[in-house]
Write a structure and sequence with these properties.
The protein has 11 helices and 13 strands. It is an alpha/beta fold. The strands form 6 sheets. Strands 5-6-9 form a 3-stranded antiparallel β-sheet. Helix 9 crosses helix 11 (324-339). The longest helix is centred in the first third of the chain and has 16 residues, at 17-32. It starts with a strand and ends in a 12-residue tail after the last helix.
């Protein structure tokens, strides 16, 4: 099987160090296996879109040496796309998402929902009061085709939801980091696939794009692990083969809380502006949740050496502590290697 992976950030202002780690692991996995590393931009949440963020993201990845094989590039100040599976910017793919949402409606795997935000808020409040997990109650699933048509023609706003059948039972998949994962269909909500503004949610766009771009391995953060069963249900509804999944551990502050800007810088650009070497940053994020394996005594790696050493099976399950002292040490080490001309891109003799 040919390896095709993607880094799919949202253009929301800066490249988070967690995003850099995800990009790096995807890059290393692709290069290790002679595969393709794709940059895809997930910009369908227009409320979070930040002007100039896409350009900044592309520059940061290029400056760090993580050159992608397909996706958007900068030609001067102009964004151009290269590759046979584009567009690579989701806001340019809206007709595709509508087509596949209509397919799910036609085959009975999805339905129109006209519930107002007020009703949904009351439903959540009532369920919370009863100590139940908040979830949609499928009220609109029973609407007749004539009723749906009448309400659409009347201009009522609606969303499109996936119909999760409880009788589907357990959803089981193998995660390359976490092993076997199980979740029962009764614990999955009827997720929204298309919003009332005509834009897809992450769930639909993600699955459609990964299928059409022939993604073989989805390597992403642990926060997306609960969404994976939903995505598997979508792959099944479409009759598509699903990719392999790998969910990376959370990045943690020294107090073991989730890494956040409240406790320090989290933007890659901030560290580069402070003068940290790109080699130090690459090594630092590489070791946040991964190790080169038993017997390795090497302390600092070139990007080529990381590519040779990287093994997805050595990614940890537990959260990785973001320790600035380690970054400072790596920066000093990298500076000495640069100044003495010892920093060379060498490959082990067995390569």
């Amino acid at each position: 099987m040919s390896v095709r992976v993607r880094f799919a950030p949202s253009p929301t202002g800066y490249l988070h160090v967690g995003g850099l780690r995800t990009a790096l692991y995807n890059y290393l996995f692709a290069k290790k296996h002679g595969g393709v590393f794709i940059l895809r931009i997930e910009d369908t949440d227009r409320n979070r879109f930040v002007d100039g963020a896409l350009e900044s993201l592309i520059r940061s990845l290029e400056n760090l040496g993580l050159h992608h094989d397909e996706g958007p590039y900068l030609d001067g100040d102009t964004i151009v796309e290269r590759g046979d599976h584009g567009p690579y910017i989701q806001s340019k793919r809206l007709d595709m998402y509508r087509h596949y949402a209509d397919e799910l409606l036609a085959n009975g795997h999805a339905y129109h929902c006209f519930c107002t935000s007020e009703r949904l808020e009351k439903l959540r409040a009532d369920q919370t009061a009863l100590k139940q997990a908040p979830r949609y109650d499928k009220q609109c699933l029973s609407l007749s085709k004539d009723e749906v048509k009448r309400r659409i023609e009347a201009g009522e706003p609606y969303v499109i939801r996936l119909d999760v059948a409880f009788e589907r039972g357990e959803i089981v998949f193998h995660d390359l980091v976490r092993g076997q994962v199980k979740i029962h269909a009764k614990d999955i909500d009827d997720q929204v696939l298309m919003k009332s503004d005509g834009f897809p949610t992450y769930h639909l766009a993600n699955v459609v794009d990964d299928h059409l771009m022939e993604i073989s391995h989805v390597i992403r953060g642990e926060e997306w692990l609960p969404s994976t069963p939903k995505h598997i249900l979508l792959y099944e509804a479409f009759g598509w083969e699903q990719p392999e999944f790998a969910h990376l551990p959370l990045l943690l502050n020294p107090d073991k809380s989730k890494l956040s800007k409240r406790q320090g810088d989290v933007a890659v650009e901030d560290y580069l502006r402070k003068g940290y070497l790109k080699e130090a940053l690459i090594n630092f994020v590489a070791l946040l949740g991964w190790n080169p394996g038993q017997g390795s005594t090497q302390e600092v790696f070139s990007l080529e050496e990381l590519t040779f050493a990287f093994d997805i099976n050595h990614v940890h399950k537990a959260g990785a502590v973001f320790d600035l002292r380690k970054l400072d040490w790596l920066d000093r080490k990298s500076t000495r290697l640069n100044s003495s001309h010892e920093w060379i891109s060498r490959m082990p003799s067995s390569a």
